[in-house]
Amino acid sequence: MFSDTHFHFLNMTGGDAEKGADFFREAASYNPFFMMDIGTKCDDLLPRFSFVEKSLSLLGNAELESDVKSFMFFSAGIWPDEDEIRDRKKCVEVLEKQIEDFKNLAAEKSSGKFHGLAAIGECGLDHHWNSSERDGGFDSEMLEAERELFIMQMGLAEKLNLPVIVHSRDAFDGTVSCMDEAGFSNGVVHCFSYGKDEAKAFLDRGWYIALGGAVTYTKKRNMDAMRDLIRFIPGDRLLLETDAPYLAPVPMRGKPNTPLYIRHTYEFISEIRGVSVEDLCRTVDENCARLFS
Predict the structure, then answer these.
(1) How many CA atoms lie within 13 A of 150 on its CB side?
(2) Which pLDDT score, from 0 to 100, does residue 109 have?
(3) What DSSP string describes 135-147?
(4) Helices (H), strands (E): how many in the chain?
(5) CA geometry: angle at 11 spanning 9 and 16, to 5°?
(6) pLDDT, tens digit, for every residue of 42-57?
(7) Gap between the Cα atoms of 7 and 167, Å rounded
(8) 41 — phi, psi (to 5°)?
(9) Which of 83, 101, 148, 187 has the highest CB neighbour count under 10 A?
(10) 124-170: per-residue pLDDT in tens?
């Protein structure tokens, strides 16, 4: 139950492997189908994998370790950070090499229980932080370079036959334009922050929509629109996530987030959609299996 398609394990635990092991013990107790640790830097996949391995080694229980490996997956991608935008071609080369090394290392260390690479990302456009409106903000050349970095990663995903985890903040038009330019439509728009019309545009192109804890604390004046959006997303395109350690749902808002809190988001969304929590879990699990193979 309670799959979580997007969290940042190393950030969430502060690099403390004992905390990582404690998390895995508790997470395994509710038997999740799918959980994915998300990449943001071109060279972070191998360190993240090593940290998971270190946390698993502290479990002291081979059966539990095997259980965790069965639901723990990774993505690898480049968030649109200024430095990596500037050095985008080299960074994508580093990313591709990390993925190749990861596959070899994971197959060697997992003793038949492969830690799967399930997606490219998170990658995309962020025009909240990368805005021409801000002091010292992006000029037209940097905005175009940001687009190029996103499109290059969709190209890598197509090459590797993987879906993409899309980051899109205050950048709907640009995101859709990049998708159309790349001719790519396999993946999920994570932490969805737009409305029903924008959701339809992504859905019509074949993308999934992931909702996170922020839906539980939508402002009262926007709640009707949020409810409409939650009901509008087709069951076969809906995913749920935490983005932990960020965006903890009500009633945990203000605390560092964890996938252990995602049940509150499931409960909130299941009530609005008029389904049981168990049915929503089955729906999300089926979507995870279909999208992330």
Answers:
(1) 27
(2) 63
(3) TT---HHHHHHHH
(4) 12, 8
(5) 80
(6) 999 999 999 999 999 9
(7) 13
(8) -120, 150
(9) 187
(10) 999 999 988 777 789 999 999 999 999 999 999 999 999 999 999 99
